[in-house]
Amino acid sequence: MYFLNRYFNPHTPVCLLFSLFCLSCTYAQTTDKPKARYNYLLSLPKDYDKKTMPYPLVIYLHGSSHRGNDLNKLKGYGLPYVIDKGKEFNFIVASPQCPGGKYWSTENWFDSLYAELTTKYRIDADRVYLTGISLGGYGTFIAGIEHADKLAAIVPLCGGVNDDDMNRLCPTLKKLPIWTFHGTADNIIPISETERVVKALDACEGNIKFTRLENEGHGIQYLYEKDEIYEWMMLWKRK
């Protein structure tokens, strides 16, 4: 069940250029960013009201086509799509919506979302996970860099990190478990964007797992329909 708090669709023509995603990666330090509260979809486990235990939290970041002020857009693909089709999870899922004309790196939305969720709901603070696709894949990496102390693991799909933030990878993400995916035939965000992140973290002995999806393009949102990502996430707790 979803609660409204105030999907790269496989059937939508691809019209975004890689340069757009480069713009999305003009990151500032978290302390330099304006604070913001983003609306979000929330999904609770079906037994949430019957139990008193804390639950893991998964935060999902959508791609560029779902930006705006209509939360129903988020159900077009990805994790919100899977939940809307009836899949149930034994963890809480929060899916914030990035406003139109902005990027996940534009404002510090994470702190307000984290504070609100951990105040209102029974969340295990040692089991908070972050995942996102495309624009949300970039957002997952940068939020991981800036909030690694609050996260147990991250799963970026077809994302990357811009040039200015490459030198921030090892100091912040070295110890954070990461599983990242990218299609070798992606012509929107080339796989080289993920490859260079993996190379940098491998060089400093980071905890990163990389799955190359041979001959696959940008539309890898189907991965959210499988259990492997979630099972892997739940193996980790914040250190």
Automatic annotation (TrEMBL):
Keywords: Signal. GO terms for molecular function: hydrolase activity. Residues 1-30 form the signal peptide. Residues 120-221 form the Phospholipase/carboxylesterase/thioesterase domain. InterPro entries: AB_hydrolase_fold (IPR029058), Plant_Biomass_Hydrol_Est (IPR050955), PLipase/COase/thioEstase (IPR003140). The keyword Signal applies. This is Phospholipase. It comes from Emticicia agri.
